[in-house]
Amino acid sequence: MFDEVIADAGQVIGSGLPAAALLAGLAGALLGYQRLAGLTGWPRWATLGLLASVVPIVALTAVPTGPLVPGSAAAERLRGFFDAVRYLPWPDLRELGSYAEGRANVALFVPAAFFLTVACRRAWPAVLLGPALSLTIECGQAFDAWRSLDPMDLVHNSVGAWLGALAGIAVLLVRFGAGLVYDHRHAQ
Predict the structure, then answer these.
(1) What pLDDT, in 10s, does the model give residues 154-176?
(2) Roughly what angle, to the nearest 10 degrees, separates helices 124-141 and 71-86?
């Protein structure tokens, strides 16, 4: 089930924990989406899509897979990450998606941003929350010895969120046209 237990530390590590988090998260999404849809006024299908698409993001990127890094070492890893972020080729993104992991990072955030945009009928939450979630995940990975902090992950995840928001806007425009802006709590 779990790949390995670190002796003396009592920490369970390996690929079993993210898999368990994925299954538990999907079960939670199925059990809770109707309540969340009722509270927010969002369409049930979009709410379920949003919850189900956020689960793999959390399970694959935020669940610890290795031993914890002490605070001072994690701070040093974060310092190196933010130094690298300053020197990213922001205006020249020819590298974007040039390798399989980069394309996977883009694809990971597209569905969540799409469903968030469709659910709340606005793009700005997805445009802002996608990069914020990605930055939070990268900072959290500083505390996991087996995770690496890659500034290009931040770029790829952000682009995925923006593409998902664009796709959501396209669907909303096709569905609602000029009547896109309205109070969705009173709509069916």
Answers:
(1) 989 999 999 999 999 999 998 87
(2) 130
